[in-house]
Amino acid sequence: MKILVVNGPNLNMLGIREPEIYGRESYADLEKYIESAAKELGCEVEIFQSNCEGAIVDRIQEAYGKTDGIVINAAAYTHTSVAILDALKAVSIPAVEVHLSEPMEREDFRKISYVGKACIDRFAGFGFEGYRKAMERLIRSNQ
Ligand code: CA2
């Protein structure tokens, strides 16, 4: 099974600020965590990060017909992007929403998720572990 992990804006800055919310580990640590979890779960994974909404839309479109599942932490675009929602709907690949923190317990503007409207499930507030849970969920939905 092939899984694409999409990470949105500022996640490449992990570990640099706000450790009380996002932890002390870096983005490179997150990549390592995802790669090792995917290996243990027996799936192929590709990780993509961008700070640009259009680049994320382009990457989701490229996955059409080539990827079995998408794990997406669209970061701030979660709460604003109809374009990313439409891209997920257009490719119709099962997708799971992930957040390191739990946006529902934060500011009101983080309580809306456009991206989530195209996802089969959501894991938030589990830190890095949320990515593993999302991959496991996609594997279950593919069986
Ligand atoms: O909890 C999550 O994973 C979020 O998707 C992270 C986003 C935030 O906008 C979402 O509401 C929830 C932020 C991405 C990373 O932001 C950083 C900010 C400061 C230092 C390092 C990263």
Low-confidence stretches: none
CATH topology: Rossmann fold
The largest sheet is:
5 strands, parallel
Mean pLDDT: 97
The count of domains is 1
What is the name of the CATH class? Alpha Beta
Oligomerization status of the protein chains: single chain
Q: What is the CATH superfamily? A: Dehydroquinase, class II
Distance between the termini: 10 Å
CATH level-two architecture = 3-Layer(aba) Sandwich
Structural class: alpha/beta
Describe the structure.
Helix 2 packs parallel to helix 5 and helix 3 runs parallel beside helix 4. The protein is of the alpha/beta class and 143 residues long. The protein has one domain: Rossmann fold (3-Layer(aba) Sandwich), CATH 3.40.50.9100. The chain is built from five helices and five strands; from the N terminus they run E-H-H-E-H-E-H-E-E-H. It starts with a strand and ends with a helix. The model has no long low-confidence stretch (mean pLDDT 97). Strand 3, helix 4 and strand 4 form a beta-alpha-beta unit. Strands 2-1-3-4-5 form a five-stranded parallel β-sheet, sandwiched between helices. Bound molecules: ligand CA2. Ligand CA2 binds next to loops. The site of ligand CA2 has 17 residues, from loops.
